[in-house]
């Protein structure tokens, strides 16, 4: 078992040196850094197969990067990368390997886990998924009364929803016309009810997507959908209209889905990393096998870059280190993600789960208490809408909020001039956040204003600037570039977790709320009881008094 590094990273000498360096450089304005170095963009940007990462608008100098790279060495990052790559059990608390990267390996690769090559298994399951999807898309797979499938409903939550939903939305330009794909996740009945209102029982295919097949939200929605189908078409219709994606064949069988219509994956694929597995079935149905393989190839391209490139030119490593610089050494609590692409609007939500469920931990991988902040709060919204919502705070608020801007250079929907406006807005925001507006500039704007009015207006029109951001530019959102982008974020999260010393692959924190909800449900059914704090007891009483029926 890997029990590497029992000494927390904050005890390493470079940690203290980074704190000193932050104190010494925190007043340096990025405007000055750009003025001093006309090559800053060239030196602080990287390109990989049409994906550009510009990290020049950060509060970084060569010395900062040198120290951050030393931090990576102090945390033994190189070793952790290789351990993940070759399938060591780095998810210590669950005794599991972490091999979502194996899902993206080409068929001629090999990777041995417990003496077995996992690559043939991965490709065999991928082949099953692709063949099934092609049967549905071509009309070879029909509904119970011979109708073609026109609508797919993926029922899942967390990683069994956010990844496929985000990818399916982003790749809509590649979707087959005439086959709608919906996602139902919330146990709130209105979610399923609203989707069912659009469905025809003769032409709808339900995918019950759950790694564990025990998640109550998913099972309740799946049972409700099943009842709806059976009421309209009878029990025999279930076999043609329900398939499952899971690692739990027994529970799938118990639910009443033939395991021939179940697509599997493995315990070494975490839920939030599972869109590359059979959990991507809804995506394959939408965009087809060929395009899904391009998505996998994009992920694999980023994997090779991550595993094989020296850290000073390694995109995920640099993004991870820059994030740590603000999070740990500047005390920035949040990180905003702004895709300037309507199709990518669910990316912030997906990265939120990826990052916060992975690195939202207060103890190290061996159970030791950590005395420093770990994972940031991830949030964000599509641009340009976000500019009209919360950018005021980014420009003139009191907090340091590092941002990622993501923007394609070309649109699939080239309405006259509009994409150029979108890109200009994206670049303008990072420029404004970086440079701010000086007193001299504001005074020029306010020429002719004087006295009390000038005193009142001048401070309000100042922009401090020095707000850091990364810009990730894709040539276009394609299955391949999206694969690269998503793998970039996965590895960034890995880098940060490895350096902070947390296990990025378990999620014990979500269990407690689930246990208490179960207890409350039982008490609600029994009409009360149980021992709670006064607030929870009062809320329970209020519910029981006010609920209809
Ligand atoms: O929220 C906890 C969690 O376990 C996530 O990690 C996971 O993605 C989600 O629930 C759904 O789990 P499952 O795929 O087993 O239904």
UniProtKB/TrEMBL annotation:
Pfam annotation, one family: PGI
Major location category of this protein: cytoplasm
Keyword Isomerase: yes
Keywords: Cytoplasm, Gluconeogenesis, Glycolysis, Isomerase
Record-linked CDD domains: SIS_PGI_1, SIS_PGI_2
EC top class, as a word: isomerase
GO molecular function terms noted in the UniProt entry: glucose-6-phosphate isomerase activity
InterPro entries referenced in this protein's UniProt entry, alphabetically: G6P_Isomerase, G6P_Isomerase_C, Phosphoglucose_isomerase_CS, SIS_dom_sf, SIS_PGI_1, SIS_PGI_2
EC numbers on record: 5.3.1.9
Protein's cellular compartments: Cytoplasm
Reaction catalysis annotation: alpha-D-glucose 6-phosphate = beta-D-fructose 6-phosphate
SUPFAM superfamilies the UniProt entry points to: SIS domain (SSF53697)
Biochemical pathway: Carbohydrate biosynthesis; gluconeogenesis; Carbohydrate degradation; glycolysis; D-glyceraldehyde 3-phosphate and glycerone phosphate from D-glucose: step 2/4
Active site residues per record: 357, 388, 514
Family: Belongs to the GPI family.
Biological role stated in the UniProt entry: Catalyzes the reversible isomerization of glucose-6-phosphate to fructose-6-phosphate.
NCBIfam families reported for this sequence: PRK00179.1
Full protein name: Glucose-6-phosphate isomerase
UniProt lineage: Bacteria, Pseudomonadati, Pseudomonadota, Betaproteobacteria, Neisseriales
């Amino acid at each position: 078992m890997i029990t590497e590094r029992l000494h927390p990273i904050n005890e390493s000498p470079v940690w203290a040196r980074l704190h000193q360096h932050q104190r010494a450089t925190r007043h340096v304005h990025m405007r000055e850094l750009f003025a001093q170095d006309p090559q800053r963009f060239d030196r602080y940007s990287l390109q990989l197969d049409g994906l550009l990462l510009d990290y020049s608008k950060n509060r970084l100098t060569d010395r900062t990067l040198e120290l951050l790279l030393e931090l990576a060495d102090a945390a033994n990052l190189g070793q952790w990368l290789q351990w993940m790559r070759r399938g060591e059990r780095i998810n210590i608390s669950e005794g599991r390997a972490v091999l979502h990267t194996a899902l993206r390996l080409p068929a001629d690769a090999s990777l041995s886990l417990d003496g077995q090559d996992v690559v043939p298994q991965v490709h065999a399951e991928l082949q099953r998924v692709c063949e099934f999807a092609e049967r549905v898309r071509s009309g070879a797979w029909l509904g119970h009364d011979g109708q073609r499938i026109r609508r797919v409903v993926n029922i899942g939550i967390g990683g069994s929803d956010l990844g496929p939903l985000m990818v399916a939305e982003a790749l809509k330009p590649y979707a087959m016309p005439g086959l709608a794909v919906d996602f139902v996740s919330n146990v709130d009945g209105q979610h399923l009810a609203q989707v069912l209102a659009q469905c025809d029982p003769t032409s709808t295919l339900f995918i019950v997507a759950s790694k564990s097949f025990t998640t109550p939200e998913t099972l309740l929605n799946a049972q409700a959908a099943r009842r709806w189908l059976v009421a309209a078409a009878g029990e025999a219709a279930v076999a043609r209209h329900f398939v499952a994606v899971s690692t739990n064949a027994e529970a799938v069988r118990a639910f009443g889905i033939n395991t021939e219509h179940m697509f599997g994956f493995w315990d070494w694929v975490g839920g939030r990393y599972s869109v590359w597995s059979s959990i991507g079935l809804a995506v394959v149905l939408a965009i087809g096998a060929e395009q899904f393989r391009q998505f996998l190839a994009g992920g694999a391209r980023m994997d090779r870059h991550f595993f094989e490139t020296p850290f000073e030119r390694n995109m995920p490593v640099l993004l991870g280190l820059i994030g740590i610089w603000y999070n740990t050494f500047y005390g920035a609590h949040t990180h905003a993600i702004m895709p300037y692409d309507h199709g990518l609007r669910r990316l912030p939500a997906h990265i939120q789960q990826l990052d916060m469920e992975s690195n939202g931990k207060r103890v190290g991988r061996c159970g030791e208490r950590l005395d420093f902040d770990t994972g940031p709060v991830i949030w964000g919204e599509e641009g340009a809408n976000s500019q009209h919502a919360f950018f005021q705070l980014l420009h003139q608020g009191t907090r340091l909020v590092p941002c990622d801007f993501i923007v394609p250079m070309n649109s699939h929907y080239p309405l006259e001039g509009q994409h150029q406006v979108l890109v200009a807005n994206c670049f303008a925001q990072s420029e404004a956040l970086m440079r701010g507006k000086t007193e001299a500039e504001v005074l020029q704007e306010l020429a002719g204003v004087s006295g009390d009015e000038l005193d009142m207006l001048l401070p309000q029109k100042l922009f401090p600037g020095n707000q850091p951001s990364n810009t990730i530019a894709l040539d276009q959102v394609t299955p391949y570039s999206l694969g690269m982008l998503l793998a970039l974020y996965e590895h960034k999260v890995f880098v940060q977790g490895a350096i902070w010393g947390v296990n990025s692959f378990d999620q014990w924190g979500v269990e407690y709320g689930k246990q208490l909800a179960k207890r409350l449900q039982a008490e609600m059914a029994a009409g009360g009881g149980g021992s709670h704090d006064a607030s929870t007891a009062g809320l329970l009483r209020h519910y029981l008094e006010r609920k209809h029926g």
